[in-house]
Records
---
Amino acid sequence: MKKALFGLVMAASMVLAGQAFAQDEGGDEPRSKFYDFENMLVEGEFRSPDLMNMEGRGQAQFQRLLNLKTSFLPKIQESTEEETLQ
């Protein structure tokens, strides 16, 4: 009986604790500003992009960090002829 009562009290406290930190609905909302550009004259010119910007950067070229050999067959053949393996 005590365990059931304790569980009920804990569940109620968790539910009520969640509501304690909840924000009010529609609290202080920031007021929006309205800008009217109808009567303003904006002068300017269109600029086309430079050729260098249009081409973009080229693909990066990196050297290999390790000089790996493409074939290990000669080394394997040499290792089979060693006396320690016979």
---
Amino acid sequence: GDSKLCRFEQTMPISSYLLAIVVGRLESRTLADNVHVWAEPSVVDKAAYEFAETEKYLKAAEELCGEYLWKVYDLVILPPSFPYGGMENPCLTFVTPTLLAGDRSAVDVVIHEISHSWTGNLVSCSSWADFWLNEGFTMFVQRKILGRLHGDETRHFSAIDGWKSLQDCITNAFPAGSPLTALVPDLTEVDPDDAFSSVPYEKGHTFLWYLEELLGGPAVFEPFLRAYLSKFSKCSLTTSQFQDFLTQYFTDQKTKLDTIDWDAWLHAPGMPPYTPKFNDELAHVCSELQQKWESWQEGSDCPSSSSDLFSLSCQQTVEFLEQVYLQEKPTPLFKLEKMAQLYSMWDKKNCEVRLRWLRICIRSRWEAAVEPALSFVTEQGRMKFLRPIYRELYKWEGAVRERAIKHFLDTESSMMHVAVQMVRHDLCLDKQ
């Protein structure tokens, strides 16, 4: 009849957690000989535009990590309820539709998932306690690719953002001193989903940044990276195996290796025992804009203009908003109203920008932000965006907190299970 039989053979060994099947009314667009994007008909052309440069990212990754062994690299756009930015299923990366900003400003996630083709898929962690071997390495590779494509200052700028997200996570997502903020946490009788956070990503990245700086820079460490990927290709390994391989590879640098406090890096909770020296050239522009807003006094002429953001990248806009959010005191409402007017903040499409703006507004207890915030957590189910918004709303005691809880209970049936469990925790519903 009308049925069609397709056969797919995966010739590469993969970890069981990487096996996934997607079913739906999907169409594809060809982006390169071995690169395609799949999506529902209403979305597929938007996706093809958004990810048109995927082959360029893939080639940059090969230059750093070695040959791409998986033959094809395809992407599929999942429904909005998908709880992650992406999932690196071999040959077919699953991605969230929140990346479809319309201006290719959110494609860092694709570079991250491409990097997983080596760090995570080719070389996998042997347990979730060693998850940083997947995600820390992948952040490290992702930012190196960004540096090669856009300049090293862009790599540093991305790392600054990662450092701040790590600080935010350790301060706000866990109790002080939580053992789950260790790079290699003890997950005995712990659901790994409860430990999921930016710690393995950003603390892991910082550890590799530190090791590269300590052992001689990229000229020395990038060959080590390729040797590591070659040695453990198609294998799962533990942190101890990584430590042994690093020590064996750099036998001529014993003095430097002896200075590494492995216990502090791997097992101590909290922030890393080392703060990188970042090039803050791109972040400095954001700081100047934030300071301009901070210094503005009510009753005086506003020193800002609608052109402020024209020269900033989307990532710099995110950084500017992050700095506004992180100020000691909430931003006064007269400033938020002016910012919204000048920058058309309520019209922004990029979800990273929307997240920061909504957090700023909720922290300042601006009633006008409540409805947009609830709409934001309804239209998509990505935990990176859901959880911070729900946590901010929960801090707003009284009617807004109750409204947020009711909204969650009314909409949880449309969310994926892991997102429901995490938000229940954030709203303290798991204690009832």
---
Amino acid sequence: MDEYIGIIKLFAGSFAPKNWAFCNGQLLPIAQNQALFSILGTMYGGNGTTTFALPNLNGRVAVGTGQLAGGSNYDQGQVGGMESVTLTSAQMPAHTHQLVANTGPGNTTAPAGALLSVPAAAVASSGDEVTVTAYASAATTLAPMNPSSLTPTGESLPHENRPPYLALPYIICLYGAFPPRD
């Protein structure tokens, strides 16, 4: 049984079988591939006079056209996606960071580790936190806090954005049965 012209399949071989070609975006002459051109047109490239292009699925995953309820719309021939992304603070979920502090008594202007501390009386005997108003007079010599107490962390580097994969070539049927319309 002949396959329909224009059908695309995954193939486990390292060659394209007879009457098939790899979906790698290559240009084909219209004169030798009129049936396939009548199906694809110039949707994937070519000048439409002498050449047209096959879809380029190298390094891509095919997704169905249309729109899921509440999802994005995908038009035929549309390309998109990224192999890696760098998140920005606007893309992160809302969250808070706890202040890094020492619950031991703060009795020096140069505390070990340069961490914020509270007066000993501010920690209840049960170990529960007690709200303390922290301030210093203008005459106080200030000590710098440990950078990990307040500064952002991370390197803003891109991260991998792909699920586990197995690379296989997509092939397209060049010659076979012309697909009938309803």
---
Amino acid sequence: MIESMNLVILIASILVVVAVFTSLVSFRVGAPLLLVFLFVGLGAGEDGIGGIMFDNAPLAYFIGSIALALILFDSGFETQLRTLKIAAAPSLVLATIGVMITTFVIGGVTWLVLDVPWLVALLFGAIVSSTDAAAVFFLLRVGGINLRDRTRSTLEVESGSNDPMAVFLTISLVELIILGGGDNIAVELLQRFILQIGLGTVFGVAGGYALVQMINRVKLEPGLVPIITMACALALFGATSILGGSGFLAVYVAGLFAGNSKMHMSVGVRRFQHVTTWLAQIAMFVTLGLLATPSEFGAVIVPGVILALVLVFVARPVAVWLCLMFFNFSRNDTAFISWVGLRGAVSILLAIVPMVEGIPEGQLLFNTAFIVVITSLLLQGWTIRRVAKWLGIIVPPRHGPVDRIDLELPGNANQEIVVYRVHEASAVATGQRIPRWARPSLILRDGASLRPHSAGHIQAGDQVYIITPPRHVELLDQLFAGPAEGANDIDLFGDFSFPPDTHIADIGRLYGFAVDEDDAELTVADILKRDLSGDVELGDRVPYGTVELIVRRTDDEHGVIEVGLAVEQQKAKPKRRIPIFQSRAELLEIWKDWQKRKRAEKNAALTAGTPATALPTDDHDSGSDDELTGDPSENPVTDPDQDANPDPDHLSSPSDPSAPDDNSADAAKTPAPTAAKDDADTSSTTKAPGKKA
């Protein structure tokens, strides 16, 4: 028995070591690291070179649940409140309505492809309906892709909050399959959903508050604070789940509350959680890989790939578009959000539930879900950076690389120590003064410790210890960072720069382009905010007339500080415009244009159908008045106000001073319905310069 335990410890340690070292290969070739961990488990399993027999589905579900709870707690802990504010509404809609839309779309296709009962097909849709928090957070935070704050925040909050909905749907459908339907199924499901979400939210807030108060009031050894934090998070997960709430939602909300509160030893807690999160990801993916049997994949690989492609190219885009069309996301941002719908360990973990509960199709659903996850990680995870670059949504970084270490001050002080290594091209190295609210306490130079007042000017390579409030650390980063990539790139930030309060009319006079009357009193900052729907980011471009306005610098609240001007628009590589994912405003504009065209066509048809306005014959144009003096019965007049037999002499009679001459009379009787239609079409499609198409 003891030897068997030692063997398990040895094998588990070797798997962790192998997973860690394979990460080096992952970073070199650009493969999703979590996919590498999954392949390590597959390689060590019964069909791999390891030959390890592992078929304990309940144990795998237990390990995966603990790991996912730790990952979600850390995800909430690292999510700033500012991130939640700008993305709460769209991400929560995606996490609820989006998950349900995906469930029904994939459920319908599963019913056709796998030929299973309708409830089982819906169960598979619920299993793969949520994005994977571990995969999304890893690719966005570790992958180094610099996105717009709103887009990044939406993806992060969605991935952290949509798991409870998927878990609820999966467990509810499993119970329906086992117990059969009842008369009040919809009411029971709604009550259970409200209970899970309500208890999860309430217990999460209460648990986060209790955790912060306990750590701040009880004097513990610094090394014990991260451990008790992790233990409290897992205890909250278990207690909430036992009482009928969503444990995953509770730990995410608790982490969100604790991470945005003043908590003692928060720096140490963050470091510890980074370690435990990595270990949890390795343990979860390797365990799920061990549970799978690749030799059984052959029977489901074709339907699995079909379902994965439908999920990637149909279900996820439709769900994202329907959920985000009311939030003024650009088409490219919506397209990217739909592409970053990675499926990962959560889907495999939920696929274990039907196996544990003894549903006959459980193994089929597990193997198919595994194929879907592998396809998603290969297709989406491997191309996420390329797609972001192709869509043109990568924004320049606010500042260059920063070499910084955070240190914790003892007690409950509202200050912390940050240590910077001075970059040779940073602002402080070139003479910029450190603000008064930041107090340098020590400078290390060439191995010697110097007091700030005796060290002289700060030099490149110095290590500067600064005491500062935590909220000002990001401002200090800008002083000690190196230059941002492309900071002086003319193609990226324009030929010239000017203040944001400059009027667009002044720029129009200077560069010789017309300004719309409604824009004459607007500043360039107003134009940028209007055309970007208030979501302004560094590097955003808005064409106006013959120039392009470029956001060159912003503050922490996304206010415009400096605007660049590109005189030749062709310098900037045009952003691809996706022909789908129209927003509500764009759909409304399309509807209005269609109505205008239909009205113009109707008016043109009515005008063309009136004989009094028909074009005159060639004989009349040549000067013959036979048409005018012929039998009135041959030339019926439908307009009672129109003279049925106009006389040229009468038209030019002095007694009628308002009568036009012959030429103008002919012109008056000669309509141009085609031109009228063209004008209507043109008026419906022409926009003032500078306004979004």
